[in-house]
Give the backbone structure.
Amino acid sequence: MLLNPEIMHEISLVRTIFRTLADNFSTEELDRVVVIELKVGPLANVEPVLMQNAFEAVVEEEEARFRKATLQVNTVPVLVHCPACDQTSEVQQYRFVCGNCGNPCANVVQGNELLIERVVFRD
Ligand SMILES: [Zn+2]
């Protein structure tokens, strides 16, 4: 399988994830990774399906040690914090208004992230 140019953005994200893991875990630990869980916000410009495709492609081409690992993309809702009423609420359908008082609100406190949330190792 060749690396598909249409998913180069996701491929570069996957490479960054693998580099981050390599910086934080030993070779022996990396060989035992079975699940990599990501926390992804809707504003992070990441398509979960494309992340899966990119993950499989990079493992196949470059990172054989992760062949037994699966990628799990956990999406989280967009949350805004309203300075007018001091409440945090969920943004529905990209309408940036406070769910409590209805004021326009673009003070995003969750939704931009792309983080490694959890790594599971086999015994
Ligand atoms: Zn409010």
About this structure: Residues 82, 84-85, 87, 98, 100-101, 103 surround zinc ion (CB under 6 Å). The beta strands are 33-40, 70-75, 79-82, 87-90, 108-110, 114-121. The domain at 5-76+111-121 is CATH 3.30.2320.50 (hypothetical protein PF0899 fold).
